[in-house]
Amino acid sequence: MPNTNHKKGDQDRDVRRAEESDVADKVRAEVEAMHEFLVAWFTGAVANDDDVFQRGFARRFDPGLVLIPPAGNLLTLAGLTKAIRGSHGSNPEFRIAIRDVVLRRELPGLVLVTYQEWQRNAKASTPANNGRVSTALLRPEAVAPGGFAWLHVHECWLPSEIMSAGPYEF
To answer: What Pfam family does this protein match (any one) (predicted)?
Structure first.
């Protein structure tokens, strides 16, 4: 369905301009770094330490964060933090690959990004090898580890035929 809020071509121009901006590389690096921490945490590759957890995870998020995983339930920062904090070392074979990071919009004080998150050996997901597309709203934040505070994340499963085809060699 076409976006009727823009003149023909405006949407493509916005995405192209965002992808070419200086912010795009920083956003891509933040998305990748946050997921690298999750892998390190779940596999036990980093210390089960409050400072490590704060620097790698908790300080990245706005206090009002909302995460909607593929199942459709709503998680607040408190619920997400409790689940992640309690899962240190719980999945030594877990892996994530981030693909197709696209900065969709760059607005004053906000960026909107989409990306694919591919998981291998995810004990907490069905199927354990899966892929999802995520949309995240971030705000530049100088004190956050990657320079952005995550405000909102919405994840949806990739179509089953795409998930089943993989690839999961990462």
So the answer is: S6PP_C
Helices 22-43 + 10-19 axis angle, to 10? 70
- Give the DSSP per-residue string, 38-58: HHHHHHT-S---HHHHHHHTG
Averaged pLDDT, 124-149: 96
Tokens 């330490």 belong to: 49
Tokens 């998020």, located at residue: 61
pTM: 0.88
pLDDT, average across residues 125-142: 96
Edge-first strand order for the sheet with 110-120 is: 75-76, 61-68, 148-157, 130-140, 110-120, 95-107
CATH number at residue 93: 3.10.450.50
Where are the strands (E) in the chain, listed by range? 61-68, 75-76, 95-107, 110-120, 130-140, 148-157
127 DSSP 8-state letter: S
